[in-house]
Structure formats: C-alpha cells, structure tokens
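Purpose: get a first structural picture of the assembly so the mutagenesis plan has something to point at.
Setup: two entries, given in the order below. No constraints added.
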Amino acid sequence: MDCLEVSAEQALQMAKGCRQYAMCKIDFLGTGICESGADRRFVAYYPQGRMLLYAALAEGKIPVTARAKEIADGCTLCGKCDYQCYFVTGMRPTAVMRALKRFVVGHPQPDRAASDADPLLAEIRAIVGSRWADSDPAVTVTYSTDPCPLADQRIPRYVVLPESAEQVAALLALFREHGIAWTVRGNGTNILGFALGDGAIIDMNRMKRIEFDEKNWTARIGPGVTAFELQSEAVRRGYRVCVAEGAASVISSIMTSGILSLLSTAYGTCASNVVDAEFVSREGRRFSLNDKEAPNLFAFQMTDQESRFVCTSATIKLHPRSDDEAGVLVPFQGLDDAVAFARDCAVRRIGFGIGILGAEYVSSFISPTQAQAVTVKETLSTKLGMEYLVVVLGDRHALRSVADMGRPLIDQKLFRTLNLGLNALGAAEWLELLTEVSQEEPFSYLKIQGFSELAETALGPSPEALLKEVDPDLRSFYAELYAGSEMTDLVWLNMFRVTSSRIGREKHFFPILVYLPLEAELLGVLVREFAAIAAKHGIKHDLGFITPVDDGKRCMFEYDYFVDHTDPAQIADFRVAAGEVGAVIEKYAAKTGTIRWLRYLLHQGVCRMENLLYC
Amino acid sequence: MTDSNETIVMTGATGFLGSHLMAALVQRGDRLIILGRPQGTRPLRERVDALLASLGATPKKHQVDVLEADFSDPSCGLNWHQYAGVCLKATHFLHCASDTRFSETNRLASIQTNVRSLASIIELARRSRAAYFHYVSTAYVFGAETSSCPEAPVIAARHANVYEETKAWAERDVAEECSRLGIPYTILRPSIVYGDSRTGQATRFTALYHHVRSLSAIRDIYLKEIRELGGEKARRHGIYLDADGTLHLPLRIHLPRRGSVNLIPIDYFVAAVLAVLDRPDSDTIYHLTSNRPVSMEELACYCERFLNIRGIKVHYGPAPEGFAPNPAEALFDKFVEPYRPYLSDIRNFERRHTDVATEGIDPPELTYDVFERCMAFAAGANWGR
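Result (structure tokens, whole complex):
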C-alpha cells in the first residue's frame, strides 16, 4: 500500500493522533503553508484542523455540513503538510486529507447551515466581517480539543477571528452583553488545555502585524505573530528576540507562562522582554502596560489566576547579534556536575543561552525519525554515558571561556558531524572503546587531537546518510534541508526551535515546569520524586531541560511525562500521577519557599521576573 | 585437594581467572562453595551455571553450592544458616574476587572490593578453621621502576594505578591477618593473562585483547571509509589499501623506553594454581609469570599479521619536538592510555617458589599461532560485547 493510501481506520488513528502543535501553520521548512489555511485562517482550514475534523466526523461526533465539505474541498493535496508534519511527528496528514475528501463525498450535507439563522453570530460577523466568525461544527470542533491529558473536550459555540484591538473591544462588549464566556487563543492550543471553552473562542490568527522600531530596539507585534515569524523578521534585520517554540504565538507565550527559552539565561523571562503591551479588559476598556493608571500586571501571586485581559499587541525587545556566534555541547554523566557547570557559566555570564538537556530531549531533536531517536538515546546515555548535555550559545569570546574551563566538549563542527552521522553512532565500536578507557576523565576522548576529523572519517556524515530511514519520497527534500547549515546549527535551532516539537513524536508530552534555585540537591530531589511517580504509574518520563535565569540564582526546570493522548487508560493513569506531582511541588514549595510552579504563573506571564522569582 | 572431605570456598568465580579456575576445579572433582554477587537482576547461580557450561564443565549434584554474598558485610551478607553451613564445610579458601579497574575515579570501589572486604572473608576462613587461605593477587604489585621482583612481600612501590596499589595493600593485609589468626596462606601473583593457548577460549577480553581490539576498530574505520566513501580522508591521513589488500596504517607508537610485556595463558595459570593448591607452602608467594616476555616489536608484528595491516612502528624515547599525530595515531594513543605503563615494562619476576611448586608445568610461549588462536576466538565472540 502506498504510504499516502491508508484505510479509513488507519486514517482515523492518525487523525486522532494529531499533536496540535500548529507546526503546519508556520512555514518553517520553506515549503509555504497550506493555501486554504493562509486564506481562511480558521484552524479547520489548516491540516491540523482537517485532521481533527476527520476524527470528529469519522467517530460521528458531528454531522457532515456544507462547511465540512468546503473545508475538505479546500485541500489541494499539495503535500506540504506531509513535509511539515513528518518532520515533527513522523505522520503523513495527506492520507487523512484524502480520507476526509472521501468521507464528505459519501455523506449528504444539508443545503444550508443552521448557523446562518443565529442572530448573535450575525452581530459577531458585523464586527469582524462575515468571513471571520463561524459556529458551524465543522469549524468549532477543531477548537474543541487539546492533547493535554488533563483537558476534556469543549466545543465552543462560536469561533471569531478579529483583526484589530477595536474589534476585540467590541467583541468583548458584545459577549459581556449576552453573557457569553470567551477564551483567547494564539496560534495553537497551548497544549495545557487553557485555550478551550464553551462560549466563544477568539482566535488571534489575523492579527499578525510586526512593526520594527530599530532606533528603540523594539518590535511591536500582534497576538497572531508566531515565534518563528518574529524571529525570522528579527534575524533578517540583524537582531534576535527571546521567544518560545516556533509555532507558539509570542504574545500568548508571554501572557500565559512567560517565555521559556534557553535564551532566558541572558534575556530573562516574563516581563523582561516586554517594553510595553496593549490590552482590552473584560469590560472592553483598553489600556497599555505603560499607563500610570493601568492594572499592575507586573505583580505575581501564588494562586490560580484566570484570564482577565486580552493582549492586542506587545512591544518586544530586540537583542543584538554578532557574526561569530556558535554553540557547544558539554556532556555529563550526572546531573550534579551538569548543574554545577551550567551554574558556573551563568554566574560568569558566559554566553547568551544555556541549558541542561536530557538525553531524551537531545535524541528527539536531532533524529529525523522516532526509530532513530530511540537508538540515539540508547547510544548517548547507555553506551557513551552522556546522560546530560549542557548547551552553551555564545560568541567566540564566550566559547573560548567555555573551552578554558577545561571540560571535554562537542563544538559546532563536531555536532554537525555527529548529527549527520548519527546512524553510524550506534555501531561505532571505537566510541565504546573510548568510553571504556576514559573513565579517569569521562569524555576526555573529545579532546583527542583531530577528533572531529576522525569522527567524520568514521561516521561518514551526510544528509543522505542521516535520512536513509526517512520515507523515500521525502528524502530529497529533507536532504536539501540538511545540506544547509541551519538544521545542525545550535544557535539557529535554539532561536527558531523547529525541532522542539519532536519531543512529542512518540507520544504527546506533558511538561512539568517549575522555577527554583539552581541547586543540584533540590533539582535531584525533584527529579527523583517525579521519576518515582511516573514509574509507579507506568508513565514514560525524562528530564527535559534546565535553564539558568537571573545570573544562575534561579532556573527554569522542565520534567516531561509522555502520554498517548488517544489512550483513555494512559490518560486516567496520568491524571492520578499529575495529582501526586502537584502535591510534591506544593510540599517542596512550602518547605523551601523558593519554588514557583508554572500552574500559578499561567495568566500572569507578563509579571516582573523578579516578582515571580523572589516575591 | 580431591579428598572427598575437602571443600573450597571460592570468590570471584565469575571473573576471568576465577571462572577458568572454577571450571578446572569442577572438572577434577573438587567440591566448591561459590560466594559472589548477582549481576543486576541476574542471579549468581545463573551466571555460574552459564560460565561452567561455556567452559565445558558439568558439576555433579551437590558439587557446587552457590551463595549470594556481600563482603562489605561482616557476615559476608549470609544468613546465620548459610554462614554456619559454610563454616562447617569449608576447608580451603581461594579468594579471586577483585576490582580490576585502573581508574582513579573508582578508588573507593577498588579499596572496598580489593581491601576492605578481606576482613569478612578472612574471618569466615578463621571460623571455618580453613587449612589454607589462597589469595590471587597480581605480579604488578611491584612498582614499574622495579627491575628485579622477588617472590617476597612488597615493601614500598610507586604504583601505576589504583588496581596495583590496592592489590599490594591487600597482600599486606592478607599476610598480617592470616599470620595473626594462624591461618596458613599463599599469595599467587599472575602477570597479564590471556586466553587458552590450546583452544583460544577466554571468558573476558581485556588487557592484551584491548590493544588488538583497538587496532581492529581503527582499521575498520578506515576500511569502511575507503570502501564506502572513496577513502579521501584515509589518504589525507596517509592510510591506503595496498595492492595485496593489506591496509597501510602508519602508527608511530612512542614509548619512554624499551621493555617487554609479561603474558601467560589462562591454561598455564590454572594448571599452576592447581599445583600450588595441591602442594602449598605456608605463607609463600608465587609468581605465575612467563619466562620469556614478548617485546613490543613482536606484538606489533603479531597484530599486523592478524589484522592484515602494515605500518606500526615503535619508537623509544620522547616523541620528537613538533610531533603531530595523525587522527589514527591520536586515537590509538588514547586507546592504550591506561595500559601505557605496561608497554615499557622492565620488571623481571623471580620464580623460585613457583618452579618448585609447579615442577613440570612451564608457561607456554606466546607464538603467533597462539596469538592468532586467542584473537580469532575473541573476535568471534565480538570481543565480549
């Protein structure tokens, strides 16, 4: 069977497996994005939406409507989504698109959508234009789920895409008048279940304006602007911004959780990168952060919060770049040493990005397929003993300082060699031997004169070698991609974060995120506690990343649980485990007084970093 | 020792030397009590049975008792019933257990295994009223600068690594404790042991094997690059395939001085130990060493022939100023780093006690045929990976 021809059951399984990471909504591979999505902007018109729509239709959750047929017909089967989705999840959505087309053809649709008779929808459309609001289940169902195992499905009544702050203010006033609850959504679901709601979903996808003010080192952006889009524009002008995953709306990231990035080591988080921002309150009042009379959004409280304002624009800091930037990876066998090293770098303000990455993270990011990721992780952690890798990004002076610290390291050139040659890593007996004889100083073989050249000789790195397990029809495209420097450039990868979503390739991941002192003992305790809970419930788990913030006084810490979000049994187990994880965090937060859980940061993401960390 | 009333308590039976000794003792009918640790979730009994089977030894019913033990515990990790049982049956102790790692980072573990654990084992021997305590040490308890090594206690030495240091320390403790408690003892000091000279068989592949495996790995890197990628990098490193299929692999090995490597096969080691067990002299040290150590040049030739490579050159004295190793040389240098002190060895081992105790048993010479047999076996076993 051709890989594009799958059975209805297989198509349904793939559709339900959609991770909803919104990567098909950004042009991160240079393929362009789905034309109908770019035109209509509703999630339903992107491949992600069609996956969700097909799942809902095939399971009989919604009827086939004229809108469903229009959405299905809007797909040209161009195959762009295959390149995009396969890169991240290993899935081929085109097969689902075909199944969707077949499904709607086989089911009659009513002539007229019931939604056309809804007077409130007419009022909403009067504000935003008739194209930009809908209540058809074929549209609303694509806003009803989140892969987060804590989230239950909630089908909204309306989905509306405003274009301006004025329209947002008018919508909020209308919803207030009619008692309609609303939920704002950036580019995606946020994978924590907070972008779901029964009333109206306000999708900010049309508010994509980016205005640079280079004199003041800022960019003013709309809430629909994604991290990838802003970073691309900033880099084109010679700057850098501190943003999250490529597909994430920059403003949504800031408002809900603050920017979680390795770059936060140098650029901070929460309000640190926000010069100003404009909001609309529930009552429809507009204000900006810089107003003297504005609500104090810089404060932080350790209590659950709700969304009280809609951010309609933010003015983001631009950071300078130099032409000699690169990254290095410093391997460690144990967390304690990795933490000590990362802290040492942060305290000395070396580099503009630092992160301790677990083997699962690194393996997932650098491997084009899941099977490779499994082998690479086995090789890194078991054969080579590289349980943790500290990535440091910096200019040549910073990287010289790292080299002077004397640790064996993987420089940018060697990283490319290892990445492009990773298929040969597992069978590299010479590396195993080197590990055996390097017990005195683990990884000291990396200091061998000419090691990089040797690794090139032994591993035969090339895009073709790396991609030999990739679906044959996609290989040449990816080969061209990897022939360029970006996909193996540690700086580029950490700025654009297009491979981060691969962490959810095998199963969706649930990030447990806390801010805490950058202390090995406390981190070790939490790692052990989280690992024990996961093991008890049979949940796959691993350390995600640790990034120093505020000169290494504190850090962001992510520990990941991996759950098949289509498996009710795993979801049930996870929910019990999540309760236990919460209790552990609360226990240590009370005991230490220094731990801040992401749960409380949600909707306070624009607070001052110092308020979050120390108040 | 084959007296039906005698039972040997043995440690280290799953190690290289211990496993071969155990098999030989079983084959000649000795009764054994094996004390040791499980390996992860794999029980000791399973490991012992597998080793005996692989070495062709089939114990009779009740010939081999296996007890999982922990020598860091004063009672060896045995319950009262097990401990009493050992005391009742044991007549001889053969202590082979050892942490053979060289790394300084394993210092604490080495001290624990090689030194601290002696107390509980010797106490068990005392309570058993053992006729003899035999301790397997190493010939390298002498420092590398000692040229003449007598079969006598080591007074002081500069050791090359924590393994040598802790074995020397353990020898002193064995002698002191056994003397104090009135237990007759022997100390057996083998040099570097390789596989069976007749069959090539071995259960572990370290030491000599490590060098050959290292060279094999380097050869394979370049052969693959030449065959699959055109050999551009190999040429850049001065490496190419000769017309006869031999890989020209120039490796300049710089050693501080001319020396030799003292190697004995496992079959000789086993035969010599059995002879000593049969006719031990109380409080005596035995050197189980070769009368004809091999030179580095000989070993290099053996390696070249076995691996079908050419170009290994051994240089003595410091590397010339500005010497820049090619990547293959740098890699080999790293591979042999822990073993470097043994490549320029000047130690000569006296064998007076051994010659008397093992009369008629001579260490076989390491010829190319023996070398090839052993290395072929190791390669066939994928170097124990």
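The mean pLDDT of chain B is 94.
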